[in-house]
Design brief:
single chain; Arc Repressor Mutant, subunit A; three-stranded antiparallel beta sheet; binds S-adenosylmethionine; binds iron/sulfur cluster
Length: 465
Amino acid sequence: MLNDNSVSFDKDLITRYAQAGPRYTSYPTALQFHDEFNDGDYTETARESNEDLVPAPLSLYFHLPFCRRVCFYCACSKIITNNQARSTRYLDSLHKEIVMQGKLFDRDRCVDQLHWGGGTPTYIGNEQMSRLMQVIQKNFTLRDDDRGDYSIEIDPREIGPGTIKLLREIGFNRISIGVQDFNPAVQKAINRIQGYDETAKAVEDARTQGFHSINIDMIYGLPKQTLETSRQTLKQLVDLNPDRIAVYNYAHLPHIFKTQRQINENELPDPETKLNILQLVIDYLTQNGYVYIGMDHFAKADDELAMAQKTGSLHRNFQGYSTHANCDLIGMGVTAISCINGCYAQNARDINEYESLLEQGKLPVTRGMMLDHDDELRRDVITKLICHFNIDFSFYEDNYGIKFHRYFHDELSRLALMEKDSLLSIDNEGIHVTRKGRLLIRNICMVFDKYLPISNTNKSYSKVI
Ligand SMILES: C[S@@+](CC[C@H](N)C(=O)[O-])C[C@H]1O[C@@H](n2cnc3c(N)ncnc32)[C@H](O)[C@@H]1O
Ligand code: SF4
């Protein structure tokens, strides 16, 4: 069968592009947030957003940071503990924050999107999950027609017999299941032993309970992974028939995430093998009914994400790709980030500080930034590139009052080098990313990131390849 997705990379090209860079779940990235932006600025922006001509619907994110055991590769904001009292104390603070945040937004603003992320949200147990959803419902206007996107991340090792049923009953209709790899040697190397049957059971239960969409998280670039192990893992993955699949590029930053120091670097696949695995992933999944959305994400051809990409309405936020472009995002919980109108606001990153601020009756926002016109323009360019692999010059000239060629003169000359490497083409209408360029979309976006030369020096970003 002819495979029109395959691309080839030579060693020289890999070496030139295998640099570190952001994943652009936001632009500017969190590295630009500063503490001159405070809870007062956030409150004002939130209140102002109610006055918009047509106030945006809301997207709520809740961070539940606890896990019982550590996975060595983990780069999430998590707290490893077996002490249930710790999470009970945290939930008291989270409830306080929900009440305070709820007061800032008009009740006629419906919650179109809701997400519980972690850590491991189900760590807190069925009773506390039900209670948390009740508190949310009391303070925000949740949809009662099951048509919002209400999703939760689960770890199949951390659910009881009735958990998935309960999640559906309290209002979730999308579920994301953490797996990473099915190979026993890889699982051992990352300290995450998870039986295939236990994952299959979680998928089956989610289907029986009528979840609209099931996502599975995988990672490529983990220790002991080879083309052969990846081929077997992909086969097992497709057999489970999820609606969406995320295959994340392993972000290895042991100077930031201490547990990653337990990963043996000699066992990590080299950049060439990683690219070959990525190519295999794309080939395998596209030949088995999935569409490559871009930047680590795949969806069934009839899934909303694939449709949104087709119609140009796909968006990207802190949770990855989304069909809700127009929502104001309110992040609650330790480290959570909000994105409202022209501002980003982040909660305290230390759990004790988070709890102490709420104890004092203060919103726990400790840093953030207001976006200027240039930030908003560049954010729009980067989002379009990541979601649609295409830039239409006239869109920016009409909507941002700029002459694209003049405004982005330097960026276009840097892109000309990428054009030579067949990553993209530039014509009178715009920029068009090629199949090869899709795999290096982070590099292409980085050209438009005005903060990068400054922030890249502090090694906060993971390798693109
Ligand atoms: C909060 S976890 C998912 C829920 C649950 N804690 C679990 O692990 O099943 C979010 C996802 O982030 C991804 N992830 C974590 N650390 C990563 C890293 N260093 N590089 C790339 N992806 C990572 C994993 O795919 C993981 O499933
Ligand atoms: S990957 Fe999930 S379960 Fe593992 S440590 Fe990170 S948040 Fe916890």
